[in-house]
Amino acid sequence: MSAISEFGSDRGVITQLRAYLAQAELPEDGRLPPERDLSDALGVSRTELRKALGTLEAEGQIWRHVGKGTFVGSRPVDSFADIAALAKRTNPAELMRARLIIEPEIARAAALTATPMHLAEMRTCHVRAREAATWRQYESWDNRLHRTVAEAAQNTPLLGLFDTLNALRRAVTWGRLRTTPVKPSPNHHSFAEHEAIISAIENRDMSGAAAAMRTHLQSVERNLLQRQMEAAD
Amino acid sequence: MSAISEFGSDRGVITQLRAYLAQAELPEDGRLPPERDLSDALGVSRTELRKALGTLEAEGQIWRHVGKGTFVGSRPVDSFADIAALAKRTNPAELMRARLIIEPEIARAAALTATPMHLAEMRTCHVRAREAATWRQYESWDNRLHRTVAEAAQNTPLLGLFDTLNALRRAVTWGRLRTTPVKPSPNHHSFAEHEAIISAIENRDMSGAAAAMRTHLQSVERNLLQRQMEAAD
DNA sequence: GTTCAAACCAATTCAACATTGGTTGGATCT
DNA sequence: AGATCCAACCAATGTTGAATTGGTTTGAAC
């Protein structure tokens, strides 16, 4: 070996590799050939190539995964859109916090864009929820009310997020069935709060709608915690 | 044929099927045998069995899917998790509005809960984005910065929503490749805006973080619209 | 004209195998 | 000795093709 390669071999392979990356035409996904092929093509041993790839990975220029290959750029985030998988990693409290962050902003947007049709449906849901004979019916109308608010924002992605959150809620709450068979009392906290939300939206009061929704969810949260403590017997 | 089976054959198979469901030991997932086997076991033709299964499905007692099988209970929530379907119904402008509603609130939450580790990673992403040699690299670090902000909020459902939004963004933007091969200029608007976001989070300034994120996204939105108009030649 | 069996179709699953980054152990060469 | 190389192995992943399965069509039989 020459004196240069004795203490500069790694660096030499790295520069060779960089040159290759600059010159090579990579496929759409930025994947480069398998190590065995690449080492052959560059006329280097796999050991040397792997050392060079290792430093390039440490620099964040490439990322690798067993069975997949080596790719340029930074490792993609594992986007887990799977509700079931997500539900396992969370809990009601965390979910409630997420709702508290998202839904008031949805209500704010709804106050700006709600149509008379939306408002009419909100009113209907509100009335039906009051008249509900069973808790199950109440929850159904309550859900529909909240979803109408989300629809009123008239934004497809936002509605999709809301539905995702809702599905998550059902998945997390699953198994914890409501034990109280009685119907909601006429002065259940939600009724006045729903009223506040709807009228704020009617009045195009964006901040008011957001605040009313936040208040409502906070009281739902209190209720949830209380029920959890009661269930600890 | 007997007079009974003439107008009661379907109902007869249904009751037979119900009896089977009540008696049979189903596997964990509630899957029942394939139609061909089941029709054989019950001594009925597949046509008849399928009619009975059809009404049971209409009643919501079972659900079926080609290639999967027939299952008792209600069809599991696929929960809009289908990004592709959602992407078809929306457009970049609407998506941008959704981001403008959601991400500032995520930044606000992050300002409260970010750990030094998160802050360090944000700084790293910021620096790497500045140093990016290609636009592709820049976008990669930009994405990672935004996701780190979402991680800093330390809320699993919220992170899931962020990822959903991101996947949607990729799906919608797909096909519109960036044509400019030049790397981002050193005074690209994003750099100062990212700086504002990060330092607001560092200072635990919740409102500041939300405002900075909003400003940033608004300028991204302007940029997007401008690019769309340029592309109209 | 209704029913049935068989064939066909498309979505899905499943199993076997090939590929790929990561690791180890002995051979080889300074 | 010590580094390097090479071959083999390992576990995760991708790929491919056959088998399964609900849905549909066809043609004969009654």
UniProtKB/TrEMBL annotation, chains A, B:
<dbReference type="GO" id="GO:0003677">
    <property type="term" value="F:DNA binding"/>
</dbReference>
<feature type="domain" description="HTH gntR-type">
    <location>
        <begin position="7"/>
        <end position="75"/>
    </location>
</feature>
<dbReference type="Pfam" id="PF07729">
    <property type="entry name" value="FCD"/>
</dbReference>
<keyword id="KW-0804">Transcription</keyword>
<keyword id="KW-0238">DNA-binding</keyword>
<dbReference type="GO" id="GO:0003700">
    <property type="term" value="F:DNA-binding transcription factor activity"/>
</dbReference>
<keyword id="KW-0805">Transcription regulation</keyword>
<dbReference type="InterPro" id="IPR036390">
    <property type="entry name" value="WH_DNA-bd_sf"/>
</dbReference>
<dbReference type="InterPro" id="IPR011711">
    <property type="entry name" value="GntR_C"/>
</dbReference>
<dbReference type="InterPro" id="IPR036388">
    <property type="entry name" value="WH-like_DNA-bd_sf"/>
</dbReference>
<dbReference type="InterPro" id="IPR008920">
    <property type="entry name" value="TF_FadR/GntR_C"/>
</dbReference>
<dbReference type="Pfam" id="PF00392">
    <property type="entry name" value="GntR"/>
</dbReference>
<protein>
    <submittedName>
        <fullName>GntR family transcriptional regulator</fullName>
    </submittedName>
</protein>
<dbReference type="InterPro" id="IPR000524">
    <property type="entry name" value="Tscrpt_reg_HTH_GntR"/>
</dbReference>
